[in-house]
Request: fold
Amino acid sequence: MNTKKKGEINRYMRKVRHLLPTMHKAERKFITNLRQDIEEMAQTRSSISYEALVTEFGDPHELVNNYISEKDIDTIRKELHISHYIKSLVITGILAILLVTGFKMFLAHLDYLHAQESQIAYDTTVIEELETSSAEEALEPSDIYDDTTANEEEH
Reply:
C-alpha cells in the first residue's frame, strides 16, 4: 500500500477516533475492525481518496453517531463517568506535583536568601590615627624594642 493511500486512511480514521467520546475496549475493537475493512477495500483498488472512504463507509460523524446509538445508554454513561474520574485524578495529581514543586522552590529560595545574608559580601575597614601621648611622640620607631629582636641579636 502506498503512502498516499495510508495518508487518506489515517485521515479518515483520525476523524472517526476523535469523534468517539471514550476509548475503551469496545471502541478500540470498533476502530480495529473499521481499519481492517478499509485496508481490505484499499487493496482491491488502485487509488483511494477521502471522498471514496466517505462514500463507502459513511461520513465519520454519521458512523460514530450510528455506533453510539447502538450502545446502551447506561454503558455510555458509565464509560463517560470513568473517563471523567480518570481525567480528574490526573489533573489532581498534576496540581499536587506542581504545589509540592512550588513549595520546594520557595524553601530553596529562602535558603538562598539566608545564605546570602550570612556570607560577607564586602567588609569595610576604617583606619584611624590614634591620639598619641607626648611621651610616645618623643620615641623614634627604632627606639621601640621588643624581646624577639633582642634574642636574635644575642645569637
